[in-house]
Amino acid sequence: MAPSKGDASVSCSQPENGFLNSLSLLSSEKAVQELLQQSPVQSTDDHLIEFSDAMRTVAKALRRAAEGKASAQAEAAEWKRKYELERARNLLLEHKGYNFYEKLESWWTQSSLCNAMGMIRFMLPCLFCLENCKERDRKISEEQSHRENNGDDERTENLASRSNEQSEQCCGSNGICSHEVLRDGDRDSASKVVPNKCARKASFKLSWCCKGDQSDQHKHDIVSFERGNITTAERSSKQISLKWESQPQTVIILTKPNSTSVRILCAEMVRWLREQKKLDIYVEPRVRAELLTESSYYNFVHTWKGETEIMLLHTKVDLVVTLGGDGTVLWAASMFKGPVPPVVPFSLGSLGFMTPFHSERYQEYLDSILKGPISITLRHRLQCHVIREAAKNEYETEGPILVLNEVTIDRGISSYLTNLECYCDNSFVTCVQGDGLILSTTSGSTAYSLAAGGSMVHPQVPGILFTPICPHSLSFRPLILPEHVTLRVQVPFNSRSHAWASFDGKDRKRLAAGDALVCSMAPWPVPTACQVDSTSDFLNSIHDGLHWNLRKTQSFDGPRDA
């Protein structure tokens, strides 16, 4: 019989000669046996499961903490960047009289920055110059406040002359001063393109002018925070006009293959451009062979050999003419990995959102375009890089790949859902579980993205469309992100299958677990000529191509409000 609690405490508290009595030991053994009978010890596997669950919980907590820290750091860096940009902008607006753009263009033509080291050499003197400008502005503000208190008029003239002298000294010592960047342009020279001395390139200038306004002046959209009020400057016209400063000399004609009507029109257009406009003409090797098969008269037509000559086409060609549909425009854009000459797209395809010109009146259209000025639409492109999981750093990439419509990440032939982790400027966006994801330009908003439920967007709206393909979620709606962000789509390691990326419907690449696709806005848009203007052509394309909002008009003889 087990002793009572009082007996046990007495026996345990009275050790004699350093040993517990036998009654205490017996009661302890019985207590252990009863405890084992009531709650048996679990197996080793159960302990391992509990341990793994605990470690998984700890891992989740650590990941949340890391994500929170990264998000906080990114947010702090973004706020700091915005503060510095706004402060620099306010300083820049105070300094007038500098023709920054002419300096920048002439300097760029002479030195031609082509790598990161060149950009660093360009920015370092500007940074030192900015510090000098800050110190000068501080002294000027102190003297101005002192002048206001004393009412000394003579100090005003001294202050102005001192400011001009310091500005000249600052800009003269370092070439291009950083306080001239992003100044509100008020001269035509802000958009001049310096002609290439080594090639027969026609120069032109772009101007932003309001409807009915004949002046070439334009204004930037500037946000001001002066005196605690947030205001925006008057917005200029959204239409861009191109005016030739020298006569175009070289035209390239790109055609849709396997079309008899296109081949006939191409031969007729080549003859007209040569005889009437005295232009040098480039065509694809396939087209040149077809023309020479028809007649030896076309021996004057130029072509190219190899990728090296294609890379240099933008230095020789003044104008691009496409004969086909939107696919021909996409092909023309893919040939130019950098700057793109103005494109004149003629509609000879089945459906064209980017081809406003009709081929029947090609002589009239081309004559007007060669004389200028013409309205153009700047169609933005995406610049894509594929980073493999085995890459040692983020600079070991495949690319860049330029797309005019969209880049699509899908599941390919796999029957499993696509699992994609999406990030925007290092901020987690979502995990896509469905058939795939479309990252589209606004020009591609009427293509695959529209079929997947995305919005139709004006092509001159700078943005990136984020459209899921058949997501397994009722709340997954498409997004439109600003043009300055960088998107990263990664295949997680726990994905059941690979993913496939295609660029404007071609050049498919497999994305294995750990691989990532990085997309951002490319610095080289595709300028396409407009028949009327950018907005009118866009609305006509969705009316004619999609029959947008086409229905019978409601009868007027029905019931009416009293």
From TrEMBL:
Pfam families per record: NAD_kinase, NAD_kinase_C
Bias-annotated ranges (Basic and acidic residues): 141-157
Lyase keyword on record: no
Top-rank taxon, per record: Eukaryota
Entry-linked InterPro entries: ATP-NAD_kinase_N, ATP-NAD_kinase_PpnK-typ_C, NAD/diacylglycerol_kinase_sf, NADK
Broad class of enzyme this protein falls into: transferase
Biased composition regions of type Polar residues, renumbered to the chain: 158-170
Known EC number: 2.7.1.23
Keywords assigned by UniProt, alphabetized: ATP-binding, Coiled coil, Kinase, NAD, NADP, Nucleotide-binding, Transferase
Coiled coil: 62-89
One biological process term in Gene Ontology: NADP+ biosynthetic process
Catalytic activity: NAD(+) + ATP = ADP + NADP(+) + H(+)
MF GO annotations: ATP binding; NAD+ kinase activity
Region (Disordered): 141-170
Family, similarity comment: Belongs to the NAD kinase family.
Cited PANTHER family: NAD KINASE
Protein name: NAD(+) kinase
Source organism of the structure: Prunus persica (Peach)
